[in-house]
Amino acid sequence: MIKRRAFTLIELLVVIAIIAILAAILFPVFARAREAARATSCRSNLKQMGNAWLMYAQDYDETILRSAVCGESSLLATGYTSGNSGCGGGAFYHLWQHQLHPYMKNVGIMDCPSGGRESSKYYGQYIGGGRYGYNSIVQGSALASWTRPAETMVFADL
After folding, report:
1. How many whole angstroms separate alpha carbon 88 and alpha carbon 151?
2. What is the pLDDT of residues 13-30, one digit of tens each?
3. Nearest Cα to 92, choosing from 76, 108, 116, 110?
4. What residues does 157 pair with on adjacent strands?
5. Is the pTM of this model over 0.90?
6. Using an 8 Å Cβ cutoff, are 86 and 68 in contact?
7. Which residues are paired to 4 by β-bridges?
8. Contact 81/100 with Cβ under 8 angstroms?
9. For residue 97, how many C-alpha atoms fall within 13 Å in the half-sphere facing its CB?
10. 3-state SS class at 90
């Protein structure tokens, strides 16, 4: 007759306690790693917005886009009626995001995963509300007029 030794209740509780301690140590490490990955995604989005911004400037004789413009509905497919009286009847109010949209082709770029909320989307087109800001001080200027471009911030993660 073979005698089998089973786990006692105390041994089982010790194993469970060890697992709980290891989990308590590792979960914050995983959370930091996940946040680092999200921050990397946000930096990538900023780079892509910068590339789109430069493409826009090249298409418009090296003139920087404005933070908002009024135009006809044919100006951009992403335009919407803002009710802004400065635009006049029938005109559309286009934010900088609308102006960059044709150069990005992906509204997901406007969403920073660390931000905690998504931008407003309507049928796959960006209509405002993202997690990035645009330096409106540089708007409408020519790239050649910049004296210290490496020290000038254009986009920022909010």
Report:
1. 37
2. 999 999 999 999 999 888
3. 76
4. 132
5. no
6. no
7. none
8. no
9. 23
10. coil
